[in-house]
Automatic annotation (TrEMBL):
The gene is rnfG. The lineage of its organism: Bacteria, Pseudomonadati, Pseudomonadota, Gammaproteobacteria, Alteromonadales. The complex is composed of six subunits: RnfA, RnfB, RnfC, RnfD, RnfE and RnfG. Keywords: Cell inner membrane, Cell membrane, Electron transport, Flavoprotein, FMN, Membrane, Phosphoprotein, Translocase, Transmembrane, Transmembrane helix, Transport. It comes from Thalassotalea insulae. It is an enzyme of class 7 (translocase). This is Ion-translocating oxidoreductase complex subunit G.
Amino acid sequence: MREAIEKNAKLLALFAIACTAVVGLVHMLTKDRIVAQQQQQLINTLNSLIPPESHNNEISQSCFIVQDELLGGYQQKVYLATENEQPVAAAITATAPDGYNGNIELLVAVKLDGSVSGVRTLKHQETPGLGDKIELRKSHWILSFTGKKIRGEQDNRWAVAKDGGMFDQFTGATITPRAVVKAVKSTVDYFNLHKDELFQHDANCQGAK
């Protein structure tokens, strides 16, 4: 009996070692491809928010880290678009901390005049079929921010329609769009307050997650 147990234990140990080795080998062989795909996905998203013809720098290489309560209080990334080294727009990651199921990660692009160039949802855990309409592949709602500007500190249009604002909410899911509207407005506020210093910043995202 004891011999059988020891034999099975050795087999399990060998199996575990073999599986670990295979996983390690696959990771080693695919990590560069995964990084390249993630980088291409980032470039595609940035290009969808800030048209390539509007700038002549590599936005993805102009990234630096910032942290501010207006951006959710977490470390965020800023990507700059410039034309002949003149400011054009910035794409800023932001966190909406008050989603229905937790944080909602966004990428908000703002033109130099303060108008929104585009918004994309990067990550969320909202309810499928309700809150997930903040994803472009599920709904065009996220496009409703494009072209919008903040008209002063008392601009109460930046709210969902249920709260008297200009953005639709989803049937049965007001909390999610309300959180996104609030986070996009805060990000535009941050850009308007800091845009001069942002375009003086050196890139420092290398190695940052």
